[in-house]
Write a structure and sequence with these properties.
GO terms for molecular function: carbohydrate binding; rhamnogalacturonan endolyase activity. It holds the Pfam family Rhamnogal_lyase. Belongs to the polysaccharide lyase 4 family. The N and C termini lie far apart (57 Å). Strand 21 and strand 22 form a beta hairpin. This protein folds into three domains: 235 residues, Beta-galactosidase, Chain A, domain 5; 105 residues, Immunoglobulin-like; 150 residues, Sandwich (Jelly Rolls). A nine-stranded antiparallel sheet has the order 1-2-3-4-19-14-13-7-8. The protein is mainly beta.
Length: 517
């Protein structure tokens, strides 16, 4: 997004703020957006802040936005060490290593065949190796050891990012490149695009993010020293959010925001007669919509926190507006939406009442597979050799029969029932952590019968290709007539029925069979 004009908003001994702007007109071929990009430097602060205000007027034409990010390309011969967490930091291959390597199934994945550093030979480089959940993507960047300088991207808030706290996105990667992603299709697909209709007004502030530079002579031999310093600076930036210094009136300071508090309680009648606290639950505010709509929401702001051991939560610095309160609890099936809208105005202190999540259940648990945590981490992933064996858990992908030809695969779940009461109804609870151009069909005891249930074609999150263990979440409650089940051995056939290529897949989160109510 290029600015066509610039203006010095403020210049004194303590702060400089510069605006680069562009006003859209109907004879322009650019995206129909007014753009106001800001850069800010503060006294005694080693780095600079950047934020953008995007606006479209209601009389402007319809259009879509697929993504938005701020990106920096660093000096190739200087920055060779990358860090994004305590466990994920290393000397990296170079861009030249990628250019001389072999492209694999897609252009981002490259086999290093003749790298500058011979230790990297045979390694695969892919920028998606370094993807990260929004909630964890607060600081990452690069270190030069000669001179010893760190370049860090610090994102102090996720309120302006799309898709919620566990949407994954890029961080830093070979280039050397570092970026902060505000919106993208990664691990979500087209469903998360910003789609604007004619007559729709929209404005949003992206950022500020902080580009932090640090130096330490000892980092020449130990780059992690600069990483540790960058982490400390990140915590300081988070504590100072929302910032008091941005001069755009569209960035709201803390005194113009509100607070929401409450206590999330769980009720699963099979496990407990009474309600219990929703411990470590994710609780958030997002634009009004259906249960789970927050994971597709991209136009507005989102505000998330995690509950305490008693289920209490506090969501601070909420921008005025009308929201739904959403929640989910790790190791608990399904997700929650509060019955009432929550309206925030400047200075509001709102207590959400009657926040009771009645978890989805129709009968007692007969068996369960997986952990209900919106992730496929515990499931078996087939080896790339495609030599199929019997495994308890698996991610459902396609089987390659010849070059560029794939067929659907079926997973069988075998279980025994001691009795099936006449007229009884059973329930299969099915949660998926990802889907990509897939259709999951469910059959009981007859693999050739018409499916008892089908998801239809779902998903474009492409999480498998991007080395993810989750994309968008899908949840289904499937009713089973007792007449479809047998006394003794039963088989449930789960078939991924589409065959569009190597990355057509579903990833299971959790499956549970429930007995009669």
């Amino acid at each position: 997004l290029e600015g066509t004009n610039y203006k010095i908003i403020l210049q004194n001994e303590n702060q400089i703020e510069i605006a680069f702007t562009r006003t859209w007109t109907f004879n322009s071929s650019d995206a129909p957006l007014n753009i106001d990009k800001r850069y800010v430097m503060l006294r005694d602060s080693s780095g600079f802040y950047s934020y953008a205000v995007l606006e479209r007027l209601k009389e402007w034409p319809a259009f879509d936005i697929e993504g938005g990010r701020i990106v920096f390309k660093l000096q190739k011969n200087k920055f060779q060490y990358m860090a994004m967490s305590d466990e994920r930091q290393r000397i990296m291959p170079t861009l030249k290593d990628r250019l001389t390597g072999k492209i694999l199934d897609y252009k981002e994945a490259v086999l290093l065949t003749n790298p500058t550093n011979p230790d990297f030979k045979g390694e695969v480089d892919d920028k998606y190796f370094y993807s990260c959940d929004n909630k964890d993507s607060q600081v990452h960047g690069w270190v030069s050891t000669d001179p010893p300088v760190g370049f860090w991207m610090i994102t102090p808030s996720n309120e302006f990012r799309t898709g919620g706290p566990i949407k994954q996105d890029l961080t830093s990667h070979v280039g050397p490149t570092t970026l902060s992603v505000f919106m993208s299709r990664h691990y979500a697909g087209k469903d998360i695009d910003l789609k604007f209709e004619s007559g729709e007004y929209w404005k949003k502030v992206l950022g500020p993010v902080f580009v932090y530079l640090n130096s330490n002579a000892s980092a020449k031999s130990d780059p992690s020293l600069l990483w540790n310093d960058a982490k400390q600076r990140m915590h300081k930036e988070v504590e100072n959010w929302p910032y008091s210094f941005p001069l755009s009136e569209d960035f709201l300071k803390s005194n113009k925001r509100g607070v929401v508090s409450g206590q999330l309680l769980l009720h699963d009648w099979y496990k407990n007669d009474n309600v219990v606290p929703g411990v470590s639950a994710y609780v958030g505010l997002a634009s009004p919509g259906a249960v789970g709509s927050w994971q597709f929401e991209s136009k507005g702001y989102q505000f998330w926190t995690q509950t305490q051991c008693n289920g209490s939560f506090l969501i601070e610095n909420v921008i005025p507006g009308t929201y739904n309160l959403f929640a989910w609890v790790p190791r608990t099936l399904g997700e929650y939406k509060h019955a009432s809208d929550i309206t925030i105005y400047p200075g509001a202190v709102v207590e959400a009442r009657d926040v009771v999540f009645k978890t989805p259940r129709k009968g007692a648990t007969i068996w369960e597979i997986g952990i209900p945590d919106r992730s496929a981490a515990e499931f078996f992933i087939p080896d790339p050799s495609l030599e199929f064996k019997i495994h308890k858990y698996r991610v459902e992908i396609e089987k390659k029969v010849r070059n560029d030809e794939y067929i659907a695969t079926t997973w069988q779940i075998l279980f025994d029932l001691e009795n099936v009461p006449e007229g009884a109804n059973y329930t299969l609870q099915l949660a998926l952590a990802s889907a990509n151009n897939a259709e999951l069909q469910v059959r009981f005891n007859d693999p050739k019968s018409p499916p008892e249930f089908t998801t239809g074609v779902i998903g474009k999150d492409n999480a498998l290709a991007r080395h993810g263990i989750r994309g968008l979440y899908y949840f289904y409650t499937i009713d089973i007539a007792g007449s479809r089940l047998l006394v003794g051995r039963n088989i449930i056939f789960l078939t991924q029925a589409r065959s569009g290529g190597p990355f057509t897949e579903v990833m299971y989160d959790y499956i549970r069979l429930e007995g009669p109510a």
